[in-house]
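User: Batch of two.

Assistant: Item 1 of 2:
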Amino acid sequence: MQEDNNELQNEEFDNKETITKVTGMYKDWFLDYASYVILERAVPGIKDGFKPVQRRILHSMKDLDDGRYNKVANIVGHTMQYHPHGDASIADAMVQIGQKELLIDMQGNWGNILTGDSAAASRYIEARLSKFALDVVFNAKTTEWQSSYDGRRKEPVDLPVKFPMLLAQGGEGIAVGLSTKILPHNFNELIDASIRHLKGKSFTIFPDFLTGGIADVSNYSDGKRGGKVRVRAKIGQLDKKTLVITEIPFGTTTSSLIDSILKANDKGTIKIKQIEDNTAANVEILIHLPPGISPDKTIDALYAFTNCENSISPLCCVIDNNKPVFIGVSEVLRRSTDHTVELLKLELEIQLNELEEQWHFASLERIFIENRIYRDIEEQATWEGVIKAIDEGLKPHIKHLKRAITEEDIVRLTEIRIKKISKFDIDKAKQFIESLEDKIAEVKHHLANLIEFAIDYFKNLKLKYGKGKERLTEIRLFDDIVATKVVMRNTKLYVNREEGFVGTSLKKDEYVDDCADIDDIIIFRSDGTMMITKVDAKTFVGKDIIHVAVFKKNDKRTVYNMIYRDGRSGPSYMKRFNVTGVTRDKEYDLTAGTKGSYVLYFTANPNGEAETVSILLRAVGSIKKLKWDVNFSDLAIKGRSSKGNTVTKYAIKKIELKSEGVSTLKPRKIWFDETVQRLNVDERGELLGEFKGEDRLLIMTQKGVVKTIKPELTTHFDSDMIVLEKWIPEKPISAIYYDGEKERYYVKRFMIDNPNKEEIFISEHPKSQLEIVSTDYRPMAEIVFSKRSIENMEVNLEEFIAVKGIKAQGNQLTTDKIKVVNMLESLPYEPPVVEEVEVSDEEIVDSFPLDDVEIKPSIIDKNKVKPTIIPPKKKIEEDPDQITLF
């Protein structure tokens, strides 16, 4: 018993938390280590934009600089005199600086930021400072020095960088308790922003990456914490079966990008046939697609499921006054620009002081030689006497000097050689002094107008080094890609209606549709309940399923038509509704909520179709009208919780589909957003028109390609597209083009005969080119010839040629070379008006007499060809009555 008590006490003791106070050296060690990592390793300084290891590398390269290349291994070894860490960290940091192509002139294999290939060993590659680095990074006269880690040498506290280097190169690091991620910006744009700041104007700067690509910076938030930059690869369509990636997003390589594409293909979210990496100096990744796969949809899928689109979270943390601070990139640029002005001022002041010293000694030298004062020392026997004699001899001639003569000045005079005195030229000495005075005046002018001097300094930097540093990353607003709309549906969905199971593993049961792992499915049951659940191998959703489909979130065009009986013996109601979004795995009652309610008729209509059905009643009692038709278009589309309109008080025997319905939804307005080159229904960009189900878009390119397509919101457009509008089949297309084979210009007018075919309407000769195209009914054009002797010509294209086939060559316009074709105001034309009767989806029939008799209920699921007949739960007999549909 005693042993048990002891074990219990020991167990209680072990379960208690104990707090041990850290004392002695351990008390401060963690804080010291954290401070060291933050200040000395991971975070760059705001003044020069460098981490300590980068600063030491550049300082060592300046020590070794003689204009020739040095082995990187030698530079690394020299840097170790200043840096307390090993050679590997120095070599890696140096390669990173070199790959940014700004401060280091590289020779050899320095790796490839596009492919991710590493650099060769440091003993095989060479480097020297770039001309830009020599111009803006170093100045020993303005540098503050400190002792190196072992006290043997002096190293710079900060390099006197006269440029926003931190923003140009970017930088990232992970310290203890914090991190930093500063994105690189464009060289020329930083200079422009610095100039705007010096002029007192506002500015905005955005990231620019050496890998190119496309970036959405709408949420950049000045590079502060919480901001976000979305980056994408540049993907084009080489042909109908091949996509090509020409630029990759920042933070990826071609290898990692291809790996992500292959993984997505293995998962089935995208489908590709083959992928080729032809990257060398430029990125070229070819993606071959299987037959029947849409290139447009695949592009969106690549952005949605692979590293072709990434999100970067910037975090601008810098060291300022020996402390880490979080600021925006605009503030970094302002501070850097102001620091550059301070350095320029300091350099000018040093230069002025040096010039004044030169002027002072040159003036003393002229007085000393011109007045032969050197002869006064011939009789002096002591050094003190020599100094005094020269001092006395200079006094009558020094009133114009700007400072007093010191003993050091006199000593310098005594060091003048006899040869220089004997060949002294008074005129040359005078000219030299005057040139110094001009330089002094110039420097004083710069100091008096320091801001203008700094602006000129930045302009000169841009002129000298800005060529070839144009923006590489295209800035564009991204459209949000809904993953469920672009995912490759490579899995089949099945349903067992009676037992209530849905899933991808029920291969012996009824096939529903193709689906993907990320899809949701919507289920309706005969008791009037609905639920949405995620696709899985096998999921129980309830028995007596009447409809199941892949669910599209926020889908307002799919309309459900339903007739149900309220309770076991209640009246029947009809309703139309849509489902835009609900909570997953939650059941929703679509009936009035009475126990025993039962769905008699149900259809799912992807484009808002409203059919006509026949209601059949059983001959019971004195009911006269046993059959009548009901049109669902007479109902308004309401929410899923609406009760619906009354059909009959009595049990229904049977419901038959009388006629298929047409869409009751209004034509959809579609816009084209030129910024993102995409169609949308969100009123962004230019309105293309209202589109019904059969309407198409007309597209023409500069290459003379014409086609019509359905206005799908996922469509991608070529960069050389010149015409995008709603296609009117009766409207002719007019074109003026140059035939490269016959070397003359032609005019043609044509209609599109086959809307499903892409065709070229100019000759296919390599030198053929489209001059101008018009979709106006009666276009007018002005022809300006290259020869000034030929007068301009106006052409009425309607009169010049009749409308012919698309393959017709057209009529010859001229053989003279055309400089430009200008479209003039078209002639007036009124197209024939076609009256259309449109029923608004808000219209509701106020009254509709119905006679009621009990019938057998039926349900039509549009996933099936034939309606499903469901026997009634219970027969109901009631007195006949007339019910109003409201």
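Item 2 of 2:
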Amino acid sequence: MISKTYNPKDIEEKWYQYWLDNRFFHSEPDDREPYTIVIPPPNVTGVLHMGHMLNNTIQDVLVRKARMEGKNACWVPGTDHASIATEAKVVSMLKEQGIDKKEIGREKFLEHAWEWTHKYGGIILQQLRKLGASCDWDRTRFTMEPALYDAVIDTFVDLYNKGQIYRGVRMVNWDPQGMTAVSDEEVLMKEVQQKLVYIKYAIQGSAGDFITIATVRPETIMADSAICVNPNDERYKHLHGKKALIPLINREIPIITDEYVTMDFGTGCLKVTPAHDPNDYELGIKHKLPVIDILADNGTLNEKAQILVGMDRFAARKAIVKMLEEAGNLEKTEEYKSNVGYSERTNAVIEPKLSLQWFLKMKELSQPALENVMNDTVQLVPPKFKNMYRSWMENVHDWCISRQLWWGHRIPAFYMKDGTVIVAKNKREALRKAQREHLLFALTEADLTQDEDVLDTWFSSWLWPMSVFIPESQPENSARPKAKQGDVDYYYPTNDLVTAPEILFFWVARMIIAGYEYKGREPFQNVYLTGIVRDKLGRKMSKSLGNSPDPLDLIEQFGADGVRTGMLFSSPAGNDLPYDDKLVEQGRNFCNKIWNAFRLVKGWTVVETTENGQETKDSNALAVEWFSAKLNQAITELQDHFGKFRMSDALQTVYKLIWDDFCSQYLEMIKPGFELPIDRATYDATINFFEQLMALTHPFMPFITEEIWQDIRERKAGDSVCVAPYPTGGPVNEALLADFDLLFDVVTTIRNLRNAKQISPKTELPLAIRTETPDRFNPLEGLIRKMANVSDISYVSEKAEGSSFVIKGDEFFVNIAGEIDVEQEIAALTKELEYTKGFYEATAKKLSNERFVANAKPEVVERERQKLADAEAKMKALQASLAALLQA
């Protein structure tokens, strides 16, 4: 017996365990067409947030549909070691225990990091199960596991040997708190209120003459290499070629010219600090200026600053302003808002810094990745992101791949005592290479020191679509290896990637680059780019803002199916999702609607034939035929939406099919009277429809569809809707659908008339139809009688008594005489007639205005003429209705 109310808690854990027990999510290569998705690996430090919910719901919809279509569906899960985030968490944990990272050393620190990872690293993957994610959990990978670690190191060695990797001093984003370089995508820009400080630099050899610059970073003046002005700026032409003195330290710097300087910003003078600004660095290279780095790695001033040595950069900023004022070099300060980069992981202000790092040359490597996105070998969905992609790839910079951390893939570079670098997979191979290439046969491993840095996390995840299929030996008690030899040949390239636009360049593009470099082809065929989940105010949901609900709390409250559909109701590709609790409420209500409809159907008494007459039998058969056509139409529409990755539209198609067409219309048409039975043929057809509807809905709402599908009919052990055939549809009877559209219009209009006249739905009303095609209505009569509670239907050649309405050229008359208060109806019609007359006269006056007709757009004039004609027709109808009432 199906329960009265739908309770997700009663079924979700049960069915998820059932799917796992039957290994429906597991994939092995066979002769079927593969369908492969690799999960964008969440940080091992992570917990489920709203972005994960949206992203993984979309992936699950795609993979569940493919599985039902008979494809060998393989969704590979896994996590990313997240160097910066994980190291920060472990450092924080140790700090609470009074342990300093540097004091315990690298090996001991890594023991703590691994311990932390084993304890907390699988949380987010467990949470994804609550969502219903149908990942092949046997294939779960981790970017720091041995096989994937080796793949990263091998890639580094290969690219180095090809001359693509080099070591050099370049400007990078430096995190003074994390003490490491970070990538662009790990820098968050925030608008910050700052002080714009106007500083006077004395002109050498000119008593009392000075030049003023405006800067938000007065603490860096000691690193200045020049002052730059625009050559066309008349105010400063007399200073070209002269020198200025840096306040407080009196070091000489040249005054140079360059059109890069904006004349109308600040004072039109730019202090050039090559070591502490990327644009200044480029200007310094162009003008061959010295580079003076005055900041230590931890953000304090070093000896080169000459003053305030050892002071934090922000404390030095305040101190410098005070010193400049005392020295007479401060002209003024102003409030100023500007964007400042913050480290995503530590929230420290990023410092542009020249640093000795490892880099990967990108220009040549990136060409295939650019060409094959532009020619749609790899399709971006939506395609609007192609221009952004092209812009980035055409202006690609060398990739800083080193990080000053301990947790991660350690760079396989080994240094001899004279500084000579040997790149090899491990120290043993490095020793052999040194002995062979440098003829140093007495050299030992003890003479080699490995680079302290690790690789950027993206340098491992760019291999992800390939590396997840690398075989790795497992312990004897393991169920099976995570991957076998030959898996990559079967599953690669993968089919679809679902990810966020903000990592299009930093992850997606790099995966495409790696795919062409190492497999000679694309890593995936389609990239579905989700939007950002935002709150009602348009802000990105985040823990720091406190504006994001806990996804697990939402699942607890609304059920996983309700949350999944709520996330998809308004999330077209590439567009942000304006989240509201009403969306998941709508999802929960949809579950309840399906549940109640199933309870209704399962509660009917079934007999082979009913005694309700031939008209009911014919009406039911016609209703079945109509819904079959409606179902086929929806399946065609669904496939089109899926083919174009219109996931929200696909869900809306299913939603409308079930809520409107099946529940509101079809079940209403075939529902037997109170305590009356239904005939076997109609019931069986309805059960078959329900089964197909659950199959169509399953990718979106896996739990409730499995529960109902299992209860629809007797099932064998191991049966599941998740491996049942996905409905394929058939021909669509367009003529029948058009007839039923007419039927629904008629029924709705009669129901609205009842409401307007306050006539009970139980009161039967006679209907007369004036039409040239009565044969079209004959099959629909039984349904009109049932759904509109019409006593009898007649066909007339002239106007008949009653309220009239016109639908698609046919006129309908509903005789409501005796069911209404005549005087009240006359008053209401008179009031409506007066209003319509006023509207008619106003519209006629507008159209009589020659200036309006001459100047307005033709479509606007035509619209006004149509309004006039409609008003005239309505007045005639109202006048006729009034005349009929007055004669009665």
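The CA atoms of residues 416 and 448 lie 5 Å apart.
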